[in-house]
Write a structure and sequence with these properties.
The protein is of the alpha+beta class and about 210 residues long. It has 4 helices and 8 strands, in the order H-H-E-E-E-E-H-E-E-E-E-H. A two-stranded antiparallel sheet has the order 1-2. A two-stranded antiparallel sheet has the order 3-4. Keywords: Signal.
Amino acid sequence: MAATAANFHTFLAILLLLIPIAAKGNSIFPPFIDNICEEVQCGKGTCEANQSYPFSFRCNCENGWKRTRLESEQDLEYLPCIIPDCSLDYSCMPAASPLPPVPYNISFFDPCYWIYCGEGTCTKNKTYTHTCQCNSGSSNLLNISAFPCYNDCAIGSDCQRLGIQTSRSTSSPSSNNNNDNNQATSFLPGEFTWITILLISAIMAFYK
């Protein structure tokens, strides 16, 4: 009976600690924030960690790359930089699906909800990354599986300045060896995951 009471008090103490943390969004795990960019892949961009950003990071795109086909990406800075800012002729490809609206609940996230795979199908991976499986006749940009699939007819000649080659190009194609290491991560869970782990641990201690 005494052990049960002690476990209950432990559970209650941890619960009271977690409630204000969850409400205020303050981090008690600075090492996680410091290391978040080691887990995030931003495509043709660099990761910047900051608690003020959605999901505690954002992707800063290199010149010539963007995150989506939208004109404004202000609310989508956590997405990887996989869309080339060069001449793309979408008229020779099947019409793309309309872009989804921004969710009301920002905590909602599925990489394939946002990612444009062109002539391919998006598959969410276990590590919060995605791959674009290309249809016949198309291929991933830069031969990286996280990048969208395009037909050669859609890629303008000015895209070569970004390293994008087609069968019409005289340059040799990029290597496929880095496919698995270049999957773009669009989301990594932060404080909520750690809060959940602590809460489950407390419940297990209570019922021990």
